[in-house]
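Per reviewer request, we include the raw input and output of the structure prediction for the construct analysed in the revised manuscript.
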Amino acid sequence: MKVLVMMDSFKGSISSIEAGLTIKETLEKRKRSYEVEILPIADGGEGTVESLIGLSDIKEVKVRVNNPLFESHIARYAYSNKNKLAIMEMSEASGLTLIKDRLSPMSASTYGVGEMITDALDKGVRNFIIGIGGSATNDGGIGMLTALGFRFLDENGEEINPGIGGVYDLLRIDDSNVDQRIKEAVFDIACDVDNPLNGKFGSAHVFAPQKGATPEQVKIIDELLLKYHNITKQYINTADNTVKGVGAAGGLGYGFKTYLNANLTPGIDLILDLLDAEQHIKEADIIITGEGKIDFQTSMGKAPVGVAKLAKKYKKPVIAFSGIVENDAVAVNNEGIDAFFPILDKITSLEEAMSVDKAKENLKRSVLQVFNILEMENL
């Protein structure tokens, strides 16, 4: 029997590769013969780069960039010389965790994301997959675009500060110094939210509070993003602040879509395509997937459900394992996951549950028990 293991990470605990190896080692010790293949996955968010490094010709690149507060920071991304491809997480340069104790919603900038892109362009990259979850920023992508050569100018022709607060002074945009290599590049942006840039369901009102914005700042940020859009519209007549997803990552989705003609695509779809997952699924007898927590949000297109939907195209059975399972997790059964199993066996502290060794032990035990049943049924 061929088992394809496509686990996402248990965030804060075991990586997708560690989860896959644990399952592989568990099954290969059984009396029944299993051929186990591991295909680590992620949905484009945090952990994507880590899950892909080492696959095929994908290697890790480290680059010094500016964090959201313009402090020197080492970011990493995945790079394929063969495909001239870079896989990035914006959170590596401009993520919430980088300044979690010093959140600064008016000044935090995506400048470092542009620096990562420039580094990849220098290496010959012309195809980008960029996850934009976990941002600390609300700048509409102005910081990133500034690093790529766009100039956002005030009434004196001076560049504004590349955070959303700088838009107070924004009067015009100059693209004469833009890095021309970006015109040759294709940007696929892993975006799993549908929010527009402005309004009640826009970037500021939905996401800015978690980035430290007060209620008053939320209103100001929304107004400044609208001003930014209106000025952009004078230069790019296709600019549209209502497109689904442009509100992602503090409006970084808008910067990518409007200025770089990027595609905004569900992250898991991009990763499954990159890994040629469909061919692997076709050749397997059973699929194992999972993530740290399975709940209703999982059913909305997160990695395990992306795997399950593709597996059901070929009528393959799908089993999922997770650290914890919420009451509303049954929604995933309607999305292709045939059965899911929490790996915790008792009430325990969060620290113990998140322990790498304990998580591996719990996963191993759960896999053993599930396959005891499957073998009884002669699957």
